[in-house]
Task: inverse folding
């Protein structure tokens, strides 16, 4: 049975109180004895302790704690782009033109908690959301390795919810994924790190991602719709550079983002008759009138679970505020 791990601080204590780890049972937490300061330390040394926790040990109320990201900011934050056909098409692109796995990184300093505010910088007007399934490594990968689809448990500890918050008016006109996606608070993670048992990894394609803004549904798709599956991405990444236990891989987002293609005719005209500078000025000006882009006081709510509830990564809820 999957184990819901949380990282937290007591609400009553000072912000300098060292975070603790626990196992969530409904709305109560079984506090773990581990002193792990990082996600790497936790997945290397405390997984067995977490799996051994019982409901009877859950004596701490969830209402008395502040949940933190289960992925600490020392870990690598690696992302896949255009990894769902529906998102490729809404971006005005042809999936046939993407026979490769698109990889980029976010600054780990953008990682924030599952209930923390997302701060929109003053120069950003087109703020967007992207719900994604996060993979958390259980071991170091320091040489090329072929990861099999039925052996994910050998290299992955568990799953979490990621919101790849993006400043589209930076990312797209400037061609700067890192700058557009790495502002502080642009990476809400959690609330849980769901540790899976070996046989449960076969269920990941049936996880459903849902994102709402102010209660209105924006994104809804199954994780199994991703183009490049976890085993393929892990195999490719292991051949490129070193990965460490606790590192986070966000696996892409489906359709439903605010930024989308204006249509074939406008795209044709923009490509052939308008300069790039003018094209992006029009994009930003039009986007500023689009109510789908996130505004201060908007509340994003993200859920990832199987329809039968066997796997449930919890609910992430973040409010947008102005800098």
Result:
């Amino acid at each position: 049975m999957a184990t819901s791990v949380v990282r937290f601080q007591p609400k009553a204590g000072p912000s300098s109180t060292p975070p603790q780890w626990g196992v969530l049972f409904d709305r109560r937490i079984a506090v773990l004895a581990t002193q792990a300061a990082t996600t790497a330390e936790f997945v290397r040394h405390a997984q067995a302790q977490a799996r051994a926790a019982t409901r009877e040990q859950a004596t701490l109320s969830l209402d008395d704690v502040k949940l933190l990201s289960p992925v600490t900011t020392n870990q690598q934050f690696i992302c896949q782009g255009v990894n769902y056909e529906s998102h490729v098409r809404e971006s005005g692109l042809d999936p046939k033109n993407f026979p490769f796995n698109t990889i980029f990184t976010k600054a780990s300093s953008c990682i924030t908690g599952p209930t923390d505010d997302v701060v929109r910088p003053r120069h950003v007007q087109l703020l967007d959301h992207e719900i994604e399934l996060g993979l958390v490594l259980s071991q170091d990968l320091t040489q090329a390795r072929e990861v099999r689809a039925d052996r994910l448990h050998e290299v992955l500890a568990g799953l979490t919810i990621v919101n790849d918050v993006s400043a589209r008016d930076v990312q797209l006109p400037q061609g700067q994924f890192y700058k557009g996606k790495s502002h502080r608070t642009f990476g809400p993670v959690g609330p849980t790190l769901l540790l899976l048992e070996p046989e449960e990894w076969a269920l990941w394609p049936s996880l459903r991602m849902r994102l709402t803004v102010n209660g209105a549904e924006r994104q809804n798709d199954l994780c199994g719709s991703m183009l490049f599956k976890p085993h393929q991405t892990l195999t490719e990444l292991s051949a490129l550079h070193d990965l460490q236990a606790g590192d986070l891989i966000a696996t892409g987002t489906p359709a439903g983002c605010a930024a989308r293609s204006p249509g074939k005719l406008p795209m044709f005209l923009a490509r052939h008759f308008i300069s790039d500078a003018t094209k992006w000025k029009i994009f930003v000006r039009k986007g500023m009138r689009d109510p789908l882009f996130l505004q201060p006081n908007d509340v994003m709510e993200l859920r990832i679970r199987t329809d039968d509830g066997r796997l449930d990564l919890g609910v992430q809820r973040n409010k947008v505020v102005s800098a």
Summary: Residues 276-287 form the longest helix (12 residues).
